[in-house]
Specification:
By secondary structure, this protein is of the alpha/beta class. The protein has two domains: about 230 residues, FAD/NAD(P)-binding domain (3-Layer(bba) Sandwich), CATH 3.50.50; about 140 residues, Glucose Oxidase, domain 3 (2-Layer Sandwich), CATH 3.30.560. About 25% of the residues lie in helices and about 20% in strands. The protein has nine helices and 21 strands. It has a six-stranded antiparallel sheet. A five-stranded parallel sheet has the order 8-2-1-12-21. A three-stranded mixed sheet has the order 3-4-20, with no helix packed on it. A hairpin with a 2-residue loop joins strand 9 and strand 10. Helix 1 runs parallel beside helix 5 and helix 1 runs parallel beside helix 9. The longest helix has 20 residues. The structure holds flavin-adenine dinucleotide. The site of flavin-adenine dinucleotide has 37 residues, from helix 1, helix 6 and helix 9.
């Protein structure tokens, strides 16, 4: 039984189904055409706004398609090596560098500006099919052309192999009897299973674990980000492939990014006049998910990193021709919540909780903030778990 069909749940369902394991996936949200995924944002407004979506495919439906390896050193310290799983995952999701024809003018001048400042900005690896992509700037709304990988690709494999997907059914409890795992509870119906894997994301998973009597929900990180924007008239950057380049610094990344929030903040600027850069940091994991609320604020270190990134982003924008008197920033947001059932604290290195046969496979298990796109790592960990469950539990 897999709870949630996002990054962790989809690949796990595929891994187990193709080995002949009977799999049921229970998903809170509905199926949606990829281009309508933005209708299922379920944003949490805390001190830092946290973005995620509830639908079949989970938050993978609205990614920017960025495919970088993260957390490998931290995982190695916990005796977990996902190198071979990452190799396989990269092949399965089609990681590639997009051709120059898909690199927009705004991105090109930002890369050039960074280079002239002595900063090295490389092209971002993507899980976007260049044959299907027609740049429109809508990645984070859900791809209208289905050119971008999402978890539904793995779910399709799983369903073809006989897995069952139940949509629109939030799991509300893990079922236990005398401390032993029995299955899961939804409103009005219980489902029984030998093995349950929670893949409901870093906000819902710790809540389910808490209801099962386990300590979870501490150490929340979100990879806090801001987007710095300026004006370069008629650049048309808002319709380019977003985050198509990457500048790495210690504990932060900077990437070309348009946000519609910037439009309201720059009087007189139209969307096509705005050039922007995202600053994303490896934030302190000091947030918390409780049964009632999510607490997430920026620490002094977080603010320092965001300021350092904002200074760099501003320099690159101005050097690219943006008007220095009209630079603005979005509020702090986070699109990578994780850490709330961390390996070594809540689950062991096989992602199993203290309750036998109750596992976690989603961003909750990440030991610390990746500070960069985490999907590949979540996929690799879930793939590894699929093998473990099949070899040792079935
Ligand atoms: C705008 C945006 C852009 C992003 N871009 C990138 C990118 O380019 N590259 C990258 O690597 N990462 C990106 N991310 C982050 C990435 O999408 C997430 O880190 C990843 O999807 C998290 O995987 P997960 O399995 O933990 O959760 P999710 O993918 O969110 O899956 C959780 C699933 O569980 C379901 N669920 C929740 N509660 C319940 C319940 N009670 N019962 C049943 N089901 C439930 C949800 O509906 C959802 O389907 C982006 C995120 C956002 C918001």
């Amino acid at each position: 039984m897999i709870v949630g069909s996002g990054a962790g749940g989809g690949i796990l369902a595929s891994e187990l189904s193709q080995r002949g394991v009977e799999v049921t996936i229970i998903e809170k949200g509905p199926s949606t055409p990829p281009g309508d995924a933005h209708c299922h944002y379920d944003t949490i407004n805390t001190g830092v706004e946290i973005l995620k979506t509830h639908c079949v495919g989970g938050t993978t439906m609205v990614t920017a398609g960025n495919a970088v390896r993260t957390c490998q050193d931290e995982l190695k310290k916990l005796n977990i090596d996902v190198g071979s799983e990452l190799d396989q995952v990269e092949e399965e999701v089609g990681v590639t560098i997009l051709p120059d024809s898909l690199l927009g003018e705004g991105t090109r001048i930002l890369m050039d500006s960074a280079r002239r400042l002595g900063l090295s900005m490389e092209k971002m690896p993507k899980f976007i099919d260049p044959r299907l992509c027609k740049p429109c700037g809508k990645c984070a709304l859900g791809c209208p052309r289905n050119a971008k990988w999402n978890s539904r690709h793995y779910l399709k494999n799983a369903l073809n192999m006989g897995a069952c997907l139940i949509e629109n059914r939030p799991v509300v409890d893990v079922l236990l009897e005398n401390g032993k795992l029995k299955g899961v509870r939804t409103h009005g119906k219980d489902y029984y299973a030998d093995v349950v894997v929670l893949s409901s994301g870093a906000i819902a998973t710790p809540r389910l674990l808490k209801r099962a009597g386990l300590e979870a929900g501490a150490q929340l990180f979100v990879d806090t980000f801001i987007t710095i924007g300026g004006v370069l008239e008629k650049i048309g950057f808002n319709e380019e492939v977003q985050m198509n380049a990457l500048l790495r610094r210690k504990d932060l990344i900077i990437s070309p990014h348009f946000s519609s929030i910037l439009v309201d903040k720059i009087p007189g600027a139209a969307p096509e006049d705005i050039l922007g850069m995202m600053v994303k940091i490896k934030d302190d994991n000091q947030g918390q998910v409780t049964s009632e609320e999510v607490v997430k604020y920026s620490t002094a270190r977080d603010v320092g990193l965001l300021s350092e990134g904002a200074a760099l982003a501003g320099s690159i924008l101005v050097n690219a021709g943006a008007d220095p008197t009209r630079l603005v920033s979005t509020p702090a947001r986070g699109a990578h919540p994780g850490g709330t059932a961390a390996i070594g604290s809540v689950v062991d290195s096989n992602l199993e909780t203290e309750i036998e046969n109750l596992f976690v496979a989603d961003a909750s298990v990440l030991p610390s903030a990746p500070g960069a796109p985490p999907v590949l790592t979540i996929l690799a960990l879930a793939k590894r778990l699929g093998r473990y469950i099949y070899m040792d539990r079935v």
